[in-house]
From TrEMBL:
The keyword Lipid biosynthesis applies. This is Phosphatidylserine decarboxylase proenzyme. The active site is at residue 195. The lineage of its organism: Bacteria, Pseudomonadati, Pseudomonadota, Alphaproteobacteria, Acetobacterales. Its cofactor is pyruvate. The record marks 194-195 as: Cleavage (non-hydrolytic). The modification Pyruvic acid (Ser) is found at residue 195.
Amino acid sequence: MSLIQSLKLVIAPPHPAARPFLLASGAGAVIGRLLPFRVTRWLGTASGLFFGFCLYFFRDPERVTPAEPNVAVAPADGHVVSIEKVAPPPELDMGDAPVWRIATFLSVLDVHVNRMPVAGTVTKIAYHAGQFLNASLDKASELNERNALRVTLKDGRQVAVVQIAGLIARRILCDAEEGMQYETGERFGLIRFGSRTDLYLPPDVTPLVEVGQTMIGGETVMARL
């Protein structure tokens, strides 16, 4: 990656979900520095630092989705923490037969915008309130707060992508609605402040990534369909 590409990633425009955080911290920074009190100046400095963190955390860089058809791309940035065959999320009504699950953990330093891994129609969305365990743990898939989407491909096969809240995350954002059609790599949501994204693929495909590998949401090819 060139220096210019690296700078574009760091200074990318923020996702719209950042607006309330940026407005609040920006106002706090200005007011805190203007008032002639030591405490308010300290709060102003802290607000300014939080403003900078939010600019970085909510960055939403453009991505170049592979032109190759019939591929599943990474739904999020981060690194792969597990690849195994398990039953799909029961709330999505995809049966009990094991399918591939590729789990990607996002640290607070990763881009947290979620992208659609495949081209298809969202046929079911199921939200589940839960705990806020460390998202890198395997049991986070079942116990943590999560939002699951079932996506039906043109050939009738089904893929699922699950947004999972992490240790300090408290809000999952999902712009998708049932019946909406997406192209591969399109944005559909975001998870705040540390999270995990699980991708469930048909059992007849072969994952092309490995545990520990770094993912680039919307770009890294995870499997060919």
